[in-house]
Amino acid sequence: MDARWFRAMALALFLAALAALTLSAGAGASPNKPYSIVICGGGQTGCTSTNPAVIAPGGTTANPSSLSVTFTNDNKLGTGIRLGSDNLNVPSTPAGFSVISTSLPTCPPKFNNQAPACFVLLNRPQLRLNGGTTVGFRNLNLAPGQFISISMSAVTPAPSTTACTTTSPCFWTDEAKQSNDFNGAGNDLNSDSNSAYGTVTSAVASCAKTQGCSTTLANGGTATSAPGSISTTVTTSSGQTTVTQIESIDFGPPLIDDPQNPSSPPNTVPNCSGVTSPHLTYENLSNGADNGSDRSQMIAINTTDFQTYESEVCLETKTPFTQLVNPSPETQCTPWSGCSLAPANSILLPDGTAGFVGLLPDCGKQALQVNCSKLPGVFSRQNAGAGEPVHTIVAAIPHGFDMRMGN
User: Fold this and answer.
1) Residue that terminates a domain, selected from 200, 233, 259
2) Is 70 exceeded by the pLDDT of residue 312?
């Protein structure tokens, strides 16, 4: 080989090395200003990109869904880089998401850079009562290492078998700036790997013909993350047609038990023996034909302990059933305790149709029990003990019942 070849190779290697140094210097010159944003369900903790927020579907202005957003300035101490403002956008699909309020005050018309943190609703639809699709957070003024958690109330779409599911979450987007008023160019921050933008409203499974299926949905990341958080597993038996199973948490207005007030709103529960719960679980089978009418279900609800917890299940369904009437739900029913069996009370369900509501009796053949191959009942109970703050109750639901229940 002649010297010209060696000189050409040396020149090529030198130029390659110079290019690498230039690219490295360019990357270093483009400052990385990291921050994180974490979306979580109301009362939920521990949300991550792989463990997204679980929020209620079907939120309305009268009964909104609750969630939170946490901003953290992840820049190094001493850099002086602040997280000043952010524009947070609701998921673009499916339609129906909007934010109606937050725990921050509304920003005044005459904005003041030195005022406390505030919010403004942007991109509002024509019906202003439905909130905005962009939430402008201003005056956050977070120094490196600081964070702020903000509660939000939102309108959300109805449960879906295709969008915002555990296998296909919906995602929020945002843009953060150093400036408190979201003005200026070149002062954007960069969302880092600690961020969690996902949102789930339903767990969905396809139940094939002659096969069973199961779904699990947890509000709180784990069942023990917050008082009253629940983790629900729905197991459906086999059937003669293919159906879709869907479950959600907190779909529809809360259960209200006020038998002393005959003028209560239409969704008031006439009598569920005083049992209330911070969260409700909703289950449904559908295929546009028989809706899985030949399939039964077992529903296990794990509930983190809360002060007024009662080991009972309050069921809402479109099909008549037998309820347990318990004058003192804090004590277990016996044939001598004043408990009785009676037809479930009539009620308007979350979708506005007529239905029935009441406490579930135990499964069995003794007094105050029902045959759970024909009527819904409580299959088993396991109350929390020392060092174990989670209660577990399992309901057995025969074929022909779509439902919502509280525990």
Assistant:
1) 200
2) yes
- Contact status, residue 42 vs residue 68, Cβ threshold 8 Å: yes
Q: How many residues does the chain have?
A: 407
Whether 103 and 88 map to the same domain: the answer is yes
Q: Which residues, listed in sequence order, are joined to residue 369 by a DSSP beta bridge? A: 362
User: Beta strand 198-200 with 230-236: parallel, antiparallel or unpaired?
Assistant: unpaired
Give CA–CA dist 366/315, Å, rounded.
21
Nearest of 176, 405, 164 to residue 303 by alpha carbon: 405
Whether residues 141 and 42 fall in one domain: yes
Question: How many domains does the chain fold into?
Answer: 2
Question: Which of 200, 235, 265 is the last residue before a domain boundary?
Answer: 200
Mean pLDDT of the chain: 83
Give the tokens for residue 166: 């555990």
Task: Say whether 16 sits in a helix, a strand or coil.
Answer: helix
Residue 65 and residue 251 in contact, taking contact as beta carbons nearer than 8 Å: no
pLDDT tens across 324-383, in order?
988 877 777 777 778 899 999 888 877 778 889 899 999 999 999 999 999 999 999 988
Nearest CA to 370 out of 393, 345, 395 is that of 395
d(CA 181, CA 111): 8
Domain containing 310 equals 203-406
Angle at CA 41, nearest 5°, toward 377 and 87? 155
Please state, in angstroms and rounded to a whole number, the distance separating the CA atoms of residues 262 and 26: 72
Contact 378, 313 (CB under 8 A): yes
When comparing pLDDT for 266 and 111, which is higher? Answer: 111
Ranges of beta strands (E only) in 237-351 are 243-249, 256-257, 268-269, 280-286, 297-304, 314-317, 322-325, 340-343, 345-348
Give the global pTM: 0.83
**With 70 as the cut, is the pLDDT of residue 187 above it?**
yes
91-136 tens-digit pLDDT: 999 999 999 999 999 999 888 888 899 999 998 765 555 789 999 9
- CATH number for the domain harbouring residue 145: 2.60.40.1170
- 345 shares its domain with 323: yes
Both 143 and 230 in a single domain? no
Q: CA 133: distance to chain centroid? A: 18
Q: Which of 5-19, 76-90, 264-278, 299-313 has the lowest mean pLDDT?
A: 5-19
Residue 183 and residue 309 in one domain: no
Is the N-terminal amide bond of 94 cis, ω within 30° of 0?
yes
